[in-house]
Amino acid sequence: MEYADPVTAAATSLRAQLLDAYKSRSLKPPDWAFRVAPSIPFVGDRYGEWGGVLVYASAENLAGYGGDLPDFLLDDRARDRHRWCLENRHQDRLFPHVHMEPFNNGSLLVAAWYLLHRLGHKSPAKPLELLHGIAAANFGKFAISGSTNRDYAGSRDKLAASLPYVTEDLRVLKPTIVVAPKTMLKHPDVAQLFKRETPATRVVSLPQFNATVVNTHLAKNARRAKKLARDMSGTPVAGWIGNLTGYGDGAAWRFLVEMEERIAER
User: Fold this and answer.
1) What kind and span of H or E run contains 88?
2) What are 146-187's pLDDT values in tens digits?
3) Measured between alpha carbons, how far is 199 from 215 in angstroms, rounded to an integer?
4) What's the CA dihedral at 153, 159, 165, 168 to 10 degrees?
5) Cβ-contact 49, 123 below 8 angstroms
6) Where are the alpha helices (DSSP H) in 119-235?
7) Distance of CA 3 to CAs 15, 57, 91, Å?
8) Residue 133: which of 164, 158, 96, 91 has the closest Cα?
9) 180-195: pLDDT as tens digits
């Protein structure tokens, strides 16, 4: 298959370290969650290409399975399921399938591309190339059981179960840049974790990149978004944005405008 570079020794070593570190923390889910082990981040074959970029989605979500979980979530494959899904379910999609919807649908890959661009890096032409240069993960490592999609970014108690694993993410990957949901970063425990484990890491806090946020809450950015779309015409990210679904015409650019302020924060 031609979708990935040969796995580097460094990436393989990081994955092994993460698997050991997660196991040392116990893999038992909390009582409110599906009985599925937490997964380590997807570690790109060229992780570290831009100094070490770790991008967090909000939380694992298994509600769409309706309680009928696939086999790969019930055995050891679950512990590195994002890598397993890429290697077994990618199927030549534009946006790689890594069992995390904000990456599967392209939104967080668009955000990562724009971040790298604004920081002066040469950004890749294809989403898969970008993915293989970063690490991608869910901040919330467990999924609330049931058939209803429920996020828990605002729940300090539920987030507490994931913090030991986030700690291991930071200790093993040693990122220089972390992108994470701003709702989670507002929790004092989370803020202290980053200060303690990676005090020199640049943390970029973002709202969730979805249709509700962009089409409604970020409507204030509409005028600047049109200008940004004109300025970025012809770049790879313009084509990626054209393949995002659920947004009004050109509305996804509003999120990149919002990112400008977040990137400027230190």
Assistant:
1) helix 81-89
2) 877 778 877 889 999 999 999 999 999 999 999 999 999 999
3) 35
4) 80
5) no
6) 127-131, 156-160, 163-173, 182-185, 188-197, 211-212, 222-231
7) 19, 23, 9
8) 96
9) 999 999 999 999 999 9
Q: Which of 146-160, 227-241, 243-257 has the lowest mean pLDDT?
A: 146-160
- Domain map (residue ranges) of the chain: 9-205
The helix, strand and coil proportions of the chain, stated in percent and rounded to the nearest 5, come to: 45, 10, 40
pLDDT surpassing 90 at residue 92: no
Please state the length of the chain: 266
Q: What is the pTM of this model?
A: 0.93
Q: What is the rounded average pLDDT for all residues in the chain?
A: 91
How far are the Cα atoms of 59, 77, 154, 198, 216 from residue 82, in angstroms, in the given order? 13, 9, 24, 24, 31
The pair of structure tokens assigned to 193 is 């974790």
The C-alpha atoms of residue 92 and residue 56 are separated, in whole angstroms, by 24
Name the token pair of 131: 């993915």
